[in-house]
Every structure is written in C-alpha cells, then in structure tokens.
Q: What sequence folds into this?
DNA sequence: CGCGTCATTGATGTGCATCAAGTGGTGTGG
DNA sequence: CCACACCACTTGATGCACATCAATGACGCG
C-alpha cells in the first residue's frame, strides 16, 4: 500500500488488516454468490478471478499477484460476483470493508487511495475490453505477456524471465482464445526468436519485437 | 441519486452539483488526456465512451444514459483515459471530485454510494468482458439489446420499443463486431420474428426468444 | 514407475471479416 | 419544392483467422 501516511495512521491501518488468511493452490478465496464482507490484499501467491456466464461456460476475468486487491466487485451488491482461485499457495490480508470505510473517512489519503484502486481496476478492464474487442491472437498474447512481465518487474523480478502460473486454457479464457491457439501462438513466437518457451517457463528474447506486435495492427508475420 | 439521505444532506449535495453543462450532439464532454477534475451525472441525453488503442483503431467501451455517471476512469491518474461523446444533445451535472470526497467523508451514505457506483462499473465491465470473450455475434447483439431495453425500461420507457442512438458501426465497435455483421444479425433476428427494425427504431417482438439466445450457447439457428 | 493432466501439433471446418455494389433517408442549396 | 450529394445501412461473394476434432508427447505427482 504505497501511500503517504503518518506513522500513527499506518498503525491504525495495520490494526484493521491484521487478519491473515492462507489459501491453498486450487482453493477459492471466495466464490460467486458469497456474501461480501472484506477486500483482500494479496501478500504472496497468485490468483485468477473467473465468472460463469448464463449458459455455464466460464471465463477468467483477471490474474492477480502480490500487492494487488481482490474483491472489489462485491461492494455494489454485498455479494461476490466472481470466484477468486489461488493458482499457487497464497496468503492474503483480510480487510473488513466497513472498517476500511470508517478509517477512510478519517484518513484523507486512505480515502483517496481506495478511490484510486477502484478506478485503476476500471481502467485495467477498459484495456482488456480493447484487447478482446479489436486485437488478433498474436497481439493479445503479446500484450498479455508484456503486461505480466511488467508487473513482475515492478515487484523486483526479472524483466525477461517468468513462470506462467496458469494453464494455456486459463490464458486462453482470459484472452478470448482457445488453448490450442495460445499454444500455437507461443510456438510461432518461439520460431520468430521472440521468446523461449519450456513448459511454463518463459524467457523473453526480444521485448521490442513483442511491443511492436502490440502496437502494429497488421503484424501477422506475412 | 437514489440513496437514503436526510433533507439537509440532500441540500448540501445539491450545492456541489449545482453546475450544469450542455453538450451538443457529436461534441465531447471530455477527451482522453484531459485533466480529471469532475465526475458527470447525465441528466438528459445519451453518450458513448471510447478509447484509442496503441495503433490508432478506436473502440467504444460503453453507452451511458440519464442517471448514469461518467468519468470514473479519470480518478486513478487525474487524467481522463477515454473520450465521452454525446450521441444526442445532452445535459450533465458537473460534480467536482474533491468536493464529492469531502462530503462523502461526512455523509456516510454518500461514501457508500460512491463506492457502489465504482464497483458497479467494475461488475458491468466484467460482463462485457464475458460477452467479448465467449459469445457469438447473435448472442452479443441479443445481450446488448436486452441490456439497453432493460435500462430504458427502468427509466420509464417502453419495455419493447426503443430508438438506437448509435450507428451500426458504434454498436459493432462496442460488441467486437464489424458493422456488416451487426446489420446481418439484425436482419436475421427480423426474419425469425424476434424484432422489427426500421432504421434506428427497434421493436422487440419476442423478448423470451432473445433471452434464450443469450442463455443458450448453441442457438445459432441451424 | 505409471497414470492423469497439461501441452503440442496436424487436418479440417466455420463464423465473421473483408471487399464490393447498391439502396434509402436526410439535409442542403438552387 | 425538388435535385443532388452524402452518409448510414443492407446485402452478396469471397477469404481468412481461429475453432474444432483428433492424436501424440512431456511432465509431475502419488
């Protein structure tokens, strides 16, 4: 929570986020339909959020890593509207939302921070809508990988190497593609010398080229 | 703003949203990159929000009507990240965001309302992501029409008749389809006796059937 | 070490995009 | 008031990107 707070304020904040919760890989932090009470700040581990459509198909709406907040969708109707599932063993801070509200009435910077977290999620989803609405398979995957590695880098990890915590199917669901298409696109990137893929280990060899794929509409390689 | 406020509180709220602004059809309420200062509550008229991707294509991210709030995306970086364009002559309430923040620190119900508005937008975008990620053309258009008519109905308009304020191209952009596909899908719906289309006037003849198209994955008519 | 899960790769199919032509409604200026 | 021009829309023909179906291969866990 990188915000400008006094020591005393930080202490008060700590008091309400003292509760921790561990989530095993494959287990849900919360599920759609459950009563909403708290936001969760991820301390360690990696999550996906996914929701089921009317007909039963389900769709991954996002991947979250350490430092990010999940549960924002539950505020509006006091019910969670999606599932949050740990993709590796994880630990979260439980932040009872009414306590957050109380405290943010007193601590100016916290109020602003809460607004920003919500707004940031809206902006993130705009860019996903853009991805799903206008991009081709290669552009989608390139954008996804660049986003992942950038977020990891901001957390002190490598700028070029990462471990994909999700399956090809989960990536595909998030990107609006089938798992075979994801796999084929990885292979094509590898042939072009853009990345090196071994299972879930990924090394990015040409960051600029990936960026160019995202920026250029017609870059399908032919 | 349907929230439980005392008369005195409503008065204080009115004081900060007193400013009005008229927007002519085709004009922008705000544009991407502009400094964010206020949220806008639509009093009359109809808007689209759209953003440009890296390569210059642009994409409609939503349509907003009376009673809805635009500008939420600007909070996080104090910059608007999309354009809001009036599709018919419109009038909005200007709500300076710092004033909203101040007041919501004092008025409990307002704070909660702000949180809910932000969260609702997140949930709405989840369902658009689901639409773009998993649905076929007919399902997308059916879901879109049902959503539109439902929101209009909540505002006292007909449950079965509406005027489309946007072009086929704008619908297509929002739904991740080309304008020709939107047009063809309308024609197919008309053939099947689900709707009656004359220009932008639309009459829904079989609401249930449209709902079934959204609910059923394989309902492509063959 | 063997089984189940996840991933890769190939062959084929299809839904939507693209390209192209034509229609109709609207608004403007003569 | 009508003629013309423009724009939104419709409809048809064709192509392509991705889905689907199917078989095989590689880990990793019990």
A:
């Amino acid at each position: 929570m990188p915000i400008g707070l006094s020591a005393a304020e930080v202490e008060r904040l700590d008091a309400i986020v003292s509760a921790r919760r561990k989530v095993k890989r494959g287990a849900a932090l919360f599920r759609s339909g459950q009563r909403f009470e708290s936001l969760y700040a991820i301390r360690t581990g990696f999550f996906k959020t996914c929701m089921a459509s009317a007909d039963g198909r389900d769709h991954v709406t996002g991947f979250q890593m350490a430092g990010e907040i999940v549960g924002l969708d539950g505020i509006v109707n006091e019910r969670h509207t999606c599932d949050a599932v740990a993709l590796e063993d994880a630990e979260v801070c439980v932040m009872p939302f009414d306590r957050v509200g109380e405290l943010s009435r007193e601590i100016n910077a916290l109020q602003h921070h809460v607004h920003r977290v919500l707004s940031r999620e809206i902006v993130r989803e705009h860019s996903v809508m853009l991805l799903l609405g206008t991009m081709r398979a290669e552009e989608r995957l390139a954008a996804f990988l660049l986003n992942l590695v950038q977020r990891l880098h901001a957390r002190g990890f490598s700028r070029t190497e990462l471990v994909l915590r999700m399956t090809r199917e989960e990536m595909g669901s998030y990107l609006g593609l089938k798992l075979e298409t994801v796999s084929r696109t990885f292979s094509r990137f590898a042939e072009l010398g853009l990345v090196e893929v071994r299972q879930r280990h990924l090394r990015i060899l040409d960051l600029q080229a990936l960026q160019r794929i995202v920026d250029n509409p017609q870059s399908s390689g032919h």
Notes: Chain A has a mean pLDDT of 92.
